[in-house]
Amino acid sequence: MNLDGVQRGIGYRFRDSTLLRRALTHRSFGAAHNERLEYLGDSVVNCAVALALYQKFPALPEGELSRLRASLVSQPALAVLAEGLELGSHLALGEGEVKSGGARRPSILSDALEAVLGAVMLDGGFDAAFAVVQGVFRAPLAAIDPDTTGKDAKTLLQELLQRKRLALPNYAVSAIRGEAHEQEFEVECVIEPLNIRCTGKGSSRRRAEHEAARIALQRASVP
């Protein structure tokens, strides 16, 4: 556990380093684990990101701000940020979690990031935590686009076709393979006016439709 490395990564130095040590300790390692700090950090992250979005997009209504916040603080998004900070290499994990790759598990990484931010809140107050969140989330906050963020491929494809005043795509299951407990669906997406016909695969019809829509969106977006 390299506390100095984590502090450099988040741009904050703890007055009470035991808070950071606890934030980096998974419950599998011992009784002094990070779950209470993760609980606190979850609220800190939601509040700090909400404030950052409120300031960045003064004209957006509440619903749109909530959608953007949800995309930024989702488990996959937090896990990516934690990976960028290399938190996994600093975690104290039990032997079983070490062997099973817990240091790379998105749920453990996202919880650890929230715990670290909760620890910053306790150590330095909300202003310090907000400053750290702004630093950690700098890239995703800069890149976020209200027109696309948080919308799935089917929604984006539908909006694109509506802007072009074209009929909505047709989705049809073209094949189902495998046993009942492990099926693979193949769905075809057809957009007749644009002469687009593409196929997506997935473990469910819904996932296959979204994959087909993603491919169709790429083709329909080409000028």
Summarize the structure.
This protein is mainly α and 223 residues long. It is built from 11 helices and 3 strands; from the N terminus they run ααααααααααβββα.
Set down the secondary structure blueprint.
Elements: H1 3-10, H2 17-23, H3 35-56, H4 62-72, H5 75-84, H6 95-99, H7 106-124, H8 126-136, H9 138-143, H10 153-163, E1 170-177, E2 184-191, E3 196-202, H11 205-221
Helix pairs in contact: 2-7, 3-4, 3-7, 3-8, 5-7, 7-8, 10-11
Q: Uncertain segments of ≥5 residues (pLDDT<50)? A: none
Number of strands: 3
Overall pLDDT, averaged?
91
SSE topology string: HHHHHHHHHHEEEH
Task: Give the termini distance in whole angstroms.
Answer: 51 Å
Shape: flat
Q: What oligomeric arrangement do these chains adopt?
A: single chain
Structural class: mainly alpha
The count of helical stretches stands at 11
What share of residues are in beta strands? 5-15%
What report would you give on this structure?
With 223 residues, the protein is mainly α. It contains eleven helices and three strands; from the N terminus they run H-H-H-H-H-H-H-H-H-H-E-E-E-H. The protein has helices at residues 3-10, 17-23, 35-56, 62-72, 75-84, 95-99, 106-124, 126-136, 138-143, 153-163, 205-221; strands at residues 170-177, 184-191, 196-202. A three-stranded antiparallel beta sheet has the order 1-2-3, with helices on one face. A hairpin with a 6-residue loop joins strand 1 (170-177) and strand 2. The radius of gyration is 22 Å and the shape is flat. The model has no long low-confidence stretch (mean pLDDT 91).
